[in-house]
Design a protein that fits this description.
single chain, 316 residues, alpha+beta, endopeptidase fold (from Nostoc punctiforme), 2 domains, 7% strand
């Protein structure tokens, strides 16, 4: 056999061997792929089972913890089984949950969560027994500030204040006695300044006291508040100015338009074209009817107010 014949005889064998090798390699690759798929599938199943077991353990621990929180303890009812996927029946928490709902006015049964700040709340040991609290209604009665006077003390203070007021009124009535020859009050011609009236009224009385015994001169007190004699309108203007109720002296006719119409609680003016006088806290301040040249303008006997315009300061 020649060399060329041998070479041609070997080529079919060589080509067949290459195809066989390819087939073997392909079958091996398929087997390897199938093995990998089976391995991955089995591993995932194992991990899933392991994860389910872990979740079951967590759930069981949570149920035991909830039972201890509600007084079940280790001696209470057994935790419901979850190994077979059975849902908790709720029998272990039904009683406590119902009590909570009743105490809360029908609230939904919500499991209580552990307090994360319990360690910082100084939990009392088991042997500590604090006395029971009062009812909320009793606790709400403690609204009086510590040190505040009691009702009896307030009543006693009011009684003392009323007694002082009565004494002052009696003293004022004793001083408000007319001297002989007219209606002017006696003493030094002044009247007491009551403490229970507005400050403006007190100032008006103080102004009237300041000129109570000045002589009467027609036109006195009109050029200026500062004068040595005053007529009727000058006297009233001075006293009102002392209370901050007038800025300049006015005549009796001008005082017919002072303030507001009608009588006041503390100050009432009776004005006409030629004469004016007023009542301050019930005492008349008037130049007519005095008992002498230096007698007081404060008088105790009321007069007829017919024909006069009644005015008062708003609020007074």
């Amino acid at each position: 056999m020649t060399e060329s014949s041998q070479a041609r005889a070997a080529r079919p064998f060589s080509g067949g061997l290459s195809r066989f090798s390819l087939i073997v390699a392909a079958v091996a690759a398929v087997l390897i792929a199938v093995g990998l798929v089976l391995a991955l599938s089995g591993g995932s199943h194992d991990r899933g089972a392991a994860g389910a077991s872990a979740r079951q353990r967590i759930t069981v621990v949570g149920i035991h913890h909830h039972a201890r929180e509600h007084g079940g303890g280790s001696g209470g009812a057994a935790a419901p089984s979850v190994a077979g996927g059975t849902k908790p029946s709720g029998s272990a928490t039904g009683a406590s949950g119902g009590a909570s709902a009743a105490a809360g006015g029908g609230r939904a049964n919500v499991a209580e969560v552990a307090d994360p700040e319990e360690a910082n709340s100084f939990p009392a040991p088991a042997n500590v027994r604090h006395k029971a609290a009062k009812t909320p209604e009793k606790a709400s009665e403690a609204v009086v500030a510590e040190g505040a006077p009691s009702d009896a003390e307030v009543k006693q203070e009011l009684a003392q204040m009323h007694a002082v007021e009565r004494s002052a009124k009696q003293a004022q009535q004793q001083r408000l006695k007319p001297v002989a020859g007219g209606n002017s009050v006696g003493g030094n011609g002044t009247i007491p300044i009551p403490p229970n009236v507005p400050e403006a009224v007190q100032r008006v009385i103080a102004g009237g006291n300041a000129i109570a015994d000045f002589p009467y001169v027609f036109g006195g007190g009109h050029a200026s508040f500062v004068d040595n004699a005053y007529d009727c309108s000058g006297s009233v203007s001075y006293a009102l100015a002392a209370g901050g109720l007038l800025g300049a002296p006015q005549t009796s006719g001008e005082l017919e338009h002072w303030g507001a119409p009608g009588p006041g609680r503390y100050i009432t003016i009776e004005a006409a074209a030629g004469h004016v006088y007023m009542y301050v806290d019930g005492v008349m301040f008037n130049t007519a009817g005095r008992s002498g040249v230096y007698a007081s303008r404060w008088q105790v006997k009321p007069v007829d107010n017919s024909g006069y315009v009644t005015r008062h300061w708003p609020g007074l």
